Amino acid sequence: MTIIASADGSALGNPGPAGWAWYVDDDCWAAGGWPHATNNQGELTAVLELFRATAHLDDDLHVLCDSQYVINSVTKWMPGWKKKGWRKADGKPVMNREILQELDAALTGRRYRFEWVKGHANHPMNEAADERARAVSEAFQNHTPIPTGPGWTRGGAAAVAPVPGLRSPAASAPLAPPSAPSQPDLFDFDELSGELDELTPESAGWHEITLTLSPEEHARLIGRAHDHGLNAEEFLRSLI
Is residue 130 annotated as a catalytic residue, yes or no? Predict the structure, then answer.
């Protein structure tokens, strides 16, 4: 089976309030964003989140994308950048390195192909992704709730696992003052108290915890981390 999905990004001001979105149909899509990021960061993140949302599946992925930058980064430039230590031919650092590294990891072992579609040319799926990415940008601009979408609704819940130690795309960009509406806590630490009480001195070394997040939860985590100037791992550690 082949999954056909579109991915798009948006930034008002570029950089400015920004959003990303992937779209399969009206019942299967997701979106997120940041108070301050670039259009390219939105475009890359849309593709990254699409691969994350479908990581639990063994289907081919056909990605419709109107960004030549994204397509060329994935299909042409990335191997050379990696060989040069994530530097371009002129020796300068590759822009958006952190998200490109996360995307490189997400592509490993996947069967996929990209198809370029002209943006703003009435392509139904591209228009749907564009509208949702822009809606997130406008929500950050207007301080209104972020329309994150239903997420992946085909074949079970998606397992989303951010790559440890890598900064999210807008983490190095200057952030606008926190503007997103208050949201429920990501975790209830009271539920973890029983597990923590069971730790013995012999088991009190390093512990690895794996979290499975929905696309909405992941977007909320990244947004909160950005608000604190941290990456996702640093933000989670700060909660302990």
Answer: yes
